[in-house]
Amino acid sequence: MPVVEHEGAQIWRRRTTGQSLVRWFGWLLGVAVFVYCWQIISESTTWFFVWDAPRIANDIWTRATPPKWDYITQLGRPIWDTLNIATLGTIIALFLAVPVAFLAARNTTPSALFIRPIALLIIVSTRSINSLIWALLLIAIIGPGVFAGVIAIAIRSIGFCAKLLYEAIEEIDHTQVEAITATGASRWQIMAYGIVPQILPAFAGIAVFRWDINIRESTVLGLVGAGGIGLQLSASLNVLAWPQVSLILIVILAAVMISEWVSAKVRGAII
Amino acid sequence: MLRLQKLTKTYKTGDQALKAIDLDVPKGQVLALIGPSGAGKSTMIRCINRLVEPTSGEVLLDGVDLVKLGSGALRKARREMGMIFQEYALVERLTVMENVLSGRLGYVGFWRSFLRRYPQSDVDEAFRLLDRVGLLHMADKRADELSGGQRQRVGICRALIQNPKLLLVDEPTASLDPKTSRQIMRLITELCQERGLAAIINIHDVALAQMFVPRVVGLRFGEIVFDGLPSGLTPDKLTEIYGEEDWEATIEKVDDDEEIEAAE
Amino acid sequence: MSHPELDDLLGKGWRKPAFVKNALLRWTLIVGFIAYLIAAYMTIEVDWGRVYEGLDRGWAFVLAFTSPDFISRWSDIWSGLMESIVMTVAASVVGILISIPIGLGAARNIAPLPVYVICRGIVAISRALQEIIVAILLVAIFGFGPLAGFLTLSFATIGFLSKLLAEDIEAMDKVQAEAIRASGARWTQWVNYGVQPQVMPRLVGLSMYRIDINFRESAILGLVGAGGIGATLNTAFDRYEYDTAAAILILIIGIVMALEYLSGIIRARVQ
């Protein structure tokens, strides 16, 4: 226990002098880094616009209200596309994520030395890159449209689903697998009877969870041209049609809330 | 029928779980395997059906050495050996009926088992077994809805529907209360008699073993130190297997030596 | 031994009981889902000729990963990357600092009702609006540049961290906190001694996770003009410079992996 002698009395301290110095230095360094970062941001900011911001915000607000309600008749198809991008993308991703997860889990991978690292690389690289970037890439490759959006969502979701799924596979009860093995079952039968029933609830949960996230993500994919309601948002922003923008934002908010509600309900029913 | 010759298992850590075990189990004989935890009982049972790969030695089932079999032939051989587990090891999210039928996996093809289209004879046999252990009304319940004793009965059905020659039973009563333990042991020994099955039962409860089994094998540090009738299990023999007295004696001796040294 | 129940069952087939017991509902669900899939598939217009043409470009992109070009646009990549990192650091610091009081306020067991309602409201708004939409609005208000990105990420961090922090505080061990209160501590002392030690490890873990997310998000904010590496990436795709794009993606994946590794170490040390 660090104690300091002060005028003959022992005073309890939480840390020794050395420890306090290190901590102070750490804090100082942290503050210095933050100030430096702030300066860089500040240098590349036109402060005139920032001081003007309240007026501009007020201006946008007055233009955006009230929303142009009858524009909603033109949003039916984009909403349908958005739903399809999220749903089909999730389904494709799940089909691809299952084999990747089995290859990545320590207890089911055929080779921990060669195949597992490849599976983990697929998981990390698809997970690290946002679906908007995947969409940009796919648009450059296969052209703009809903299809590029579906594929972008699918690729982005593989890593996410495969990661959660392989963690679930690694946590299964091994004795159940042992019992099925002892009956003389083949490799695939062990999979179907010993492993799959144990991870099915996790799988369903992951699917619904990711579908919910994908609804959010697919609403903005249109900003780069990959279909869905984001296309309308980007078009309206380009012509500064603020009443349309505000309506689209309301629709997106509603879609996000509905999907969150649906996924919570479904997950509650499964688990 | 089952013969172990110089069966040895050394784990990667260097622990020698089994030291050249020799054992003969004739057809239809039920024997209990007793010994302190860590003696290698569980490893021995798992080496017989190769859930654990033996390091060396032979496991002869009707003259066929299981250790040398390839994966296809091993699966066929596993059908001959039903296994019953300590924590029941039922697939908890499947129904009782599916768990029982999973004992037939070695006999049916993948798609048949995947679509749950088992031959009618298997389904009938599953119903008969469930009726025999008194769980027919539970057939469509999920396994995790059952109590411990009920689960172990389902585990017994799963092992028997394989139509085995030999039962490998790993601590069947470890997670059960005393009354259920007796019921389960009685059920296992009765069924073995009915069907003329040989069985190796790992059990830590010596009294329970003596009550139901005609032959007891004592294992200690991976070696057989007792093999005979349950009546031959005198306190001395038990001491030899579990070694409590021995351990105390060692301590005393050390103390004595120290005292002598101190005196000098 | 004859058994009426058994005799009834023998010779009859056995089917696994269905997951959805009501047959009508089960078939409605199955048919409805298939009908939806067909409808969704029909409405996606895929220009297969365009996709086929794109396969070459896709392959060129895959090949680009084997020879990424860090050099020819290095100054652009470097400035974009620095901007992303600066935004991440500044936004994480500010976001975490603000989310602590809001998290405290959004925990029902320590905040009075009016404070609770306001804080929960802030959290709900922040979580419902996606980063990219917030960024669009902030760019419109504050002009192009990293300031808008910084504000976006800070705002998103608040929603994420405050919610999880509040849930953690609500789930904490009451007895420990009561013991501190019983010693006659003031509210601030009580939070410092009774609450903070319990939630600190998780707060550190979540903050690290959020820094990771912030960096990933900062990579796309550039698409709408809010600063960061996204703008450079977008330009690279527009010019079909796949080797530069590959270089940027490799850098992003590398940094995300490094951050995950680092956060793993820190979380292990804190807990």
Topology:
The complex is a heterotrimer of chains A (271), B (264) and C (271).
Chain A: E1 3-6, E2 9-12, H1 17-43, H2 47-64, H3 76-104, H4 115-128, H5 131-142, H6 146-170, H7 174-182, H8 187-220, H9 229-238, H10 242-270
Antiparallel strand pairs in A: 1-2
Chain B: E1 2-10, E2 16-25, E3 30-34, H1 41-48, E4 56-61, E5 64-65, H2 71-79, E6 81-84, H3 96-101, H4 110-114, H5 120-132, H6 148-160, E7 166-170, H7 178-195, E8 198-202, H8 206-212, E9 215-220, E10 223-228, H9 235-242, H10 244-263
Parallel strand pairs in B: 3-8, 3-9, 6-7, 7-8
Antiparallel strand pairs in B: 1-2, 1-4, 4-5, 9-10
Helix pairs in contact in B: 6-7
Chain C: H1 4-9, H2 23-43, H3 48-64, H4 74-105, H5 113-128, H6 131-142, H7 146-170, H8 174-182, H9 187-221, H10 229-238, H11 242-270
Question: How would you describe this structure to a colleague?
Answer:
The complex is a heterotrimer of chains A (271), B (264) and C (271). Chain A has two domains: 3-64, no CATH class; 73-270, Orthogonal Bundle (MetI-like fold). Chain A contains ten helices and two strands; from the N terminus they run ββαααααααααα. Chain A has helices at residues 17-43, 47-64, 76-104, 115-128, 131-142, 146-170, 174-182, 187-220, 229-238, 242-270; strands at residues 3-6, 9-12. In chain A, helix 9 packs antiparallel against helix 10. The model of chain A has no long low-confidence stretch (mean pLDDT 87). Chain B is an alpha/beta fold and 264 residues long. Chain B folds into three domains: 1-80 and 166-181 and 191-233, P-loop containing nucleotide triphosphate hydrolases (Rossmann fold, 3-Layer(aba) Sandwich), CATH 3.40.50; 90-163, no CATH class; 234-264. Helices cover 41% and strands 22% of the residues of chain B. In chain B, the strands form two sheets. In chain B, strands 6-7-8-3-9-10 form a six-stranded mixed beta sheet, sandwiched between helices. Chain B has a four-stranded antiparallel beta sheet with strand order 2-1-4-5. The longest helix of chain B has 20 residues, at 244-263. The N and C termini of chain B lie far apart (61 Å). The model of chain B is unreliable at 246-264 (pLDDT under 50). Chain C has one domain (77-270): MetI-like fold. Chain C is flat. In chain C, helix 6 (131-142) packs across helix 7, helix 8 (174-182) packs across helix 9 and helix 9 (187-221) packs antiparallel against helix 11 (242-270). With 271 residues, chain C is an all-alpha fold. Chains A and C meet through helix 1, helix 2, helix 3, helix 4 and helix 5 of A and helix 2, helix 3, helix 4, helix 6 and helix 7 of C.
